[in-house]
Amino acid sequence: MAFSSRRRNYMLKRHRRDGMFEFFREMLNHSFVLDAMDESASQTWSHFEQLIDEHRVCAKGSRLSELVPTSGDFFTPLPLRAAWDEYNAKYCVSSRRFVNVSFNEIRHVANLAQIMAYRRSTFSTPPSTPRTTDAAAATTTSPTSPTSSTSSTSSTSPTSPSRPRLSATENGSTLQLITFDGDCTLYSDGASMKHQDLANAMVELILNGVHVGLVTAAGYGHNAPRYEARVQMLLTTLENHPQVNSTAAARFFVLGGECNFLLHCKYAMDPTTNTKRARLEPDTTWMPDELRGCTDESMQELLDVAESSLTKALNDLGMQKKATIIRKSRAVGMYQKPNSGPAQLRRETLDECVLRVQSDLRALGSKVPYCAFNGGNDVFIDIGNKRVGVRGLQSFFKLKSNECLHVGDQFLNTGNDFAARSCCPTVWVTSPMETFYIVRRLLRDVAGNGQEASGEQKASVEEGTGVAVPVVRPTDFAAMRLRAIAAAEAKLDAMEAAEQAAVGRTSVVAVAVEVEKKTFAEKRLDAIRAAEARLDQMEKEEAEANLKE
Question: Is residue 181 among the annotated active site residues?
Fold first, then answer.
């Protein structure tokens, strides 16, 4: 049977590929095939670095834009050779004979190079050029001419005499704002934050003058408790940290629905428990500039088309029994029905739905910014996207693109972090553990740069360079254990006092009070045991991580 060429399907854009990383890998393949990785890999990375520098000067018609048409602009220099040399020295990639450099290794090197761009002292270039060091996940692109001037927009928190706190600018780093995706970046997909070391590291960034935010597709409107449930571990860490005050806590925020709902962290005394509490409070005045000209009618029209496209895809792909569609005020999505079996929705099916919706919305020609993405086990179309959100935050904090960094796990064109590449540098991770390594490395440079070594933070000297390399202080598990137990006991004391104050004097109630006393005693022991078990596990994980390093 003959078919007209008009009926043929053409995938004009490869949706599960990163053009830049694929180009890097293809070029490095020549060195591997010739068994010349030791001799030529470093020079190849220097060539990549040169192409990017040329592209930053003039993107139109650059050699890089011809070799990789999907490349955007770069907001910072990328010291790729230095990153490769450090990564290769640790993992001996160039010594392998049978396994070529992988996509993930290229991603790690690009991540390390991007982090190096936030530390000045390791470059021999003038102070106007930033730089830093670390490994593990994504590249940076977007239209804006890179600059390196910094603005100090945040004040610092109280500090201990042994470890002075410096703002990001005083530390010589240009990093002023770091935003994180939620699922698979700060916590597992659909879960809440459980990585205590990551929470500790994020608090350290906050204490060193960096604005830290969660920018997530989860859209709960201004329902603060639902967002708090996702990051409760971080909020609790802020509450328990002795150096956090209201000024420092205010540097944390949540931006929900991609860009639609802003919530600030407020740190104040809770009258019911007489303890300090870190809570999220909605900012009802928030409105990103790119959404100001959009009417509710135009937004709903876009969502109508998206819902229609999803409904047709659901029927065409035979997912009626497995998936259902949900409509929200600023989003429409398709997710797996409860109790529909253990098997998740197929990735290929979800990608097909995303690409169909993107095609239909392009045909609509709406001026409303949107994001259609595969969330792992669902598909959502949101009004706005992370480009709109991060640009709004840059305007809110009065920051330049090169002073910001976005960390996420969805940088393919069916993911919702992809849009952030057009407004700031990015780092591509695949798990909360990778995020922790990224933040820890940033912390060494942003928090440690320019400080003298103390008992808590030592410094080694790189062989042959004389450059002090800050070492992250080990986690004080004993102090954390005491704070966690004290916090658990204080919370239970407040609950017990409130319970006793509410009961009457009848004999029946008196019996109930005795029962409740036993219940609170049991709860106290359970809380202490749980806190100690969690800290034991954290201590074990840190010891294992130190052994690996």
Answer: yes
HEC secondary structure over 356-407: HHHHHHHHHCCCCCEEEEECCCEEEEEECCHHHHHHHHHHHHCCCHHHEEEE
- Given the structure tokens 């029962």, which residue do they identify? 515
Residue 422, CA atoms < 13 Å, CB-side half-sphere? 10
> Contact 406/394 with Cβ under 8 angstroms?
no
CA dihedral 360, 361, 362, 365 (to 10 degrees): 120
Of the residues 73, 134, 183, 409, which is catalytic? 183
Beta carbons within 8 Å of 141's beta carbon, 6+ residues apart: 20, 71, 72, 73, 74, 421, 422, 426
- Structure tokens that stand for 258 in this block: 């991609």
Helix (H, G, I), strand (E, B) or coil at 255: strand
What is d(CA 79, CA 109) in angstroms, rounded to the nearest whole number?
10
What letters, b where the CB count within 10 A reaches 16 and e where it falls short, cover 311-333?
Answer: eebbeebebeebbeeeeeebbbb
Residue 409 is among the residues annotated as catalytic for this protein: no
Residue 304, amino acid: D
200: phi then psi, degrees, rounded to nearest 5: -60, -45
Distances 292 to 289, 369, 522 between C-alpha atoms, Å: 5, 11, 54
Query: What is the CA angle 537-539-545, rounded to 5?
Result: 100
Closest C-alpha among 248, 177, 247, 207 to residue 397: 177
The pTM assigned to this predicted structure is: 0.69
- What are the tokens at 104? 């993930």
Q: Read off the tokens for 397.
A: 């904090």
Q: Which of 18, 181, 409, 445 is catalytic?
A: 181
CB-based contacts of 286, cutoff 8 Å, min separation 6: 261, 262, 392
**Consecutive sets of 10 residues in the chain, 549 residues long: mean pLDDT of each?**
47 62 87 82 91 90 88 88 92 89 91 84 33 37 34 34 40 77 87 91 91 90 91 92 90 91 89 83 91 90 94 91 90 89 86 92 91 88 90 92 89 77 89 92 68 34 34 49 65 69 51 52 72 72 58
Between strands 404-408 and 275-283, the pairing is unpaired
Question: Phi-psi region for residue 142, left (φ > 0), alpha (ψ -120 to 50) or beta?
Answer: left
